[in-house]
Amino acid sequence: MTEIRIPKSVTPAKVSSLYKAFIIDQRCIDVNLVLPSEINRYTFGLLADLLRFIITLNSLSEIKKLTVDAQTDELDDFYDQEYAYPIISLLWNKSLFVDNKGNNIKAQLRERQNRFLFKMNSLSKIKGNKFILTHTDHL
Asked: In the chain, where are the structural domains located?
């Protein structure tokens, strides 16, 4: 299984190099995608680039396992990240979800997904004055 690790210090250039390495140059059959518990610094376009990479990777490969580089008790902080909900939604029916200790965390993620969906449907504000994009479960 090929491990693809997204670092906390990810940049658009790093996502571009991952895209080149794992989409253009080489096709992976089985993937373990490792997501950071947080991204240190968001720059313009980073979220879109990251989602594009993971959506494309998912359409060309099988992401069998998604590892959240956090412990189970840190999942609330993980869900404060803008990339958490759409990526988990995209892979929900296809992947095994584990924390950085290898523990299956799908039950804990289900609770957080439901809370996030409720927040999204109620148009509650998150992280300042941002609103969540709706219909991300159809990626």
From this structure: 2-138
